[in-house]
Structures are given as C-alpha cells and as structure tokens.
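user:
I keep going back and forth on a fold encoding question. Separate attempts, laid side by side, tell us more than any discussion would. Would you put together a sequence-and-structure record for a protein of your own picking? Write it directly below this note and I will take it from there.

assistant:
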Amino acid sequence: MRRTWGLGGAALLLCGCGGLLFGGDGGGGDGDGDGDDDDGRETRNDGGDGEGGSEVTGWNGGDEGWDSENDSSPPTTGIEPTGADNELPEGDDCPCVADNEDIYVLSDLGTIWRFDPQSVEFTYITEIDCGGMLDTFSMGVSRKGRAWVQYQSGDLYTVDLKDPGSACKDPGFQPGNPLFPNFGMAFVADSADQTCDKLYAHSGIGAGVEGPDAGALGVIDPQTIVLSEIAKIDSGWGELTGTGDGRLFAFEGSEQTFLVEYDKDTAQVLGKWPLPGIENPSAFAFAFWGGDFYMFTTEPDDLVNGSHVVHVDFDGSDGDPMALTLLIDEAPLRIVGAGVSTCAPL
C-alpha cells in the first residue's frame, strides 16, 4: 500500500528504538549487495514524487477493462501473462504460506523490504525485476506470499516474496479506469470465518482530490482480475490496509489526514479518526498489524530522504488509544507502498 504525506513532530511521542537490520543478497546501492549505501540507507535520486499519475485514456467504462479498439493502449513490459494468483483456492480454505505475517514495504527505487513491528527492524528482501519498469506506486501482499506491485503507468505485476530475485509475473490486469488510474490496495479476508480474501482498491487520482463522489472503492475479482467499482467515496487519494477478519481501512487526506474504516461491501464509512501531526506527506503507506497501525510517511515535498515510521495505538493495548508514536525518524528507504497479508496477527 502506499502514498504521499508529511510529518509534523509536535504531536508525536518520541521513542528510542533499536538499530536497523539490513540483510539480503541483491539490490543496488554501494555495490556490496545489501541494497543500501555506505550509511545504511538505500541509494535514491530526486526524480519523481512517487505518487499520483496522469489521466489515462482508452477506458470504455465497462467492467471488461481497457478498450482494445481504441488507439490508446496501456503501457506494457511485454511480460507473458501467467495468471499469477488467480488460481482457484484449495477447497474451501485459502491457506497461508509459511512465514508470511510481517509487513512488507516497497521503495520508490523498486526494492522490497520486510518490516518487523516487534523488533522495529527493516530487512532487505529483493529488487523487483519487471522488465525495466520504473516508478513504483503501491503494493499489496497476498496469503500466498506474493507482492502485487503497481507502477505509475497503471500496470500491475506480482513478485514472489519467497523466491527473491525471480522475475515478475503478469496476472492479466487491464489498467485505464479513470476512477482508478492508480490505486492504493490491500487484501481483505471475506469475513472473520472465511479466510479467502480479495484485493481492494482506493482511487489514486491525485493529492487533494476530495469532495462528494471524488473517488471510489473497488475490488479485483481473484479469478478474472477485473476491477469493479463498489461505490463512490469522498476521497480520490488514499491508501488501504486490510485484516484477516474482514475489516478495511484507508489512510486519506492531505493538509489533514485521517484513518477511515469502510464497509468493504458498501463503502459506507464505519469510523473516522484524525491523525494529528501527519500533514501533506510526499510519500505514504500504512499497514495493520497486531491491532495497531504502522504509518510510513515523508515530509512535504521531500523526494530524497527515508520515511518516518509512526505507530498508532488503535486498540489501546499500550494504554493510550489512538496515540501516535514516532518509532523511526528516517528509514533506510523512501516507502511508497506497504503490504501485509491477511495472515498477520489481529
């Protein structure tokens, strides 16, 4: 999941936490294979804001996707479609692949890292190989341990997190819907009793796009990979995270940001909480884990430095419901997407 917004420290509680962990055997940076520079941070340039996306033409307005009769066509890497995650589940259950409970984060340079909420450490996983594609936008993670990565072009590919360095797969998604030129995304379980899940989408039209019916929530059918609109919402710019008991949350807003819970079937707002101290982030993402939220944000207009990591005590288990605590002032990467599977603890 991912997006763009800044952090004002006045409202945050500071936490002295342990150092960062950098592992793995791939990636760029200083050439030593760990995906970071000599100072432990991922090497990045100052190009692009990692968010938004220009209007895409060629969408015919129907559920079947891109209009192939239109002269405009979606960008493509030429990767052969493979189906990726859209096989039928095993019986009535959708089991979790082993070791798929952590939060995964996506950098603006196309690398994936694991974030452990308990140790507050990042571990480098892999560099994405999607046929030379650049400009990552958002990410979700499935129960099968696959990262679904969207680029600013609208293209959507999957990466096997259990096979680092393997090539991307093309699930056959057709971009171009004007309500979803890009989108924040998250897998959400069908219900507390049904572990199978679906990939949900939040309009990623542009920062500041707000107002009645400015955006929409959507859902991608796991077999056909068709994106269908659930209902209009009042935000055209947001990120999503989901849970293993069927709840759907959004990170929305610009000058004032909010945590919003939606009914995943109707898009009705079930709850809305302000996030004081997080304003106008330049890049943003978040994830639900263990009853709380972990927000990854950068300062306004900051296209270079690593993200802040902020913990939100959503369930009040730490004694101060909805308190925001700064865990890491600067992560080793600029995070534009975050994904946690529905296998994660509630």
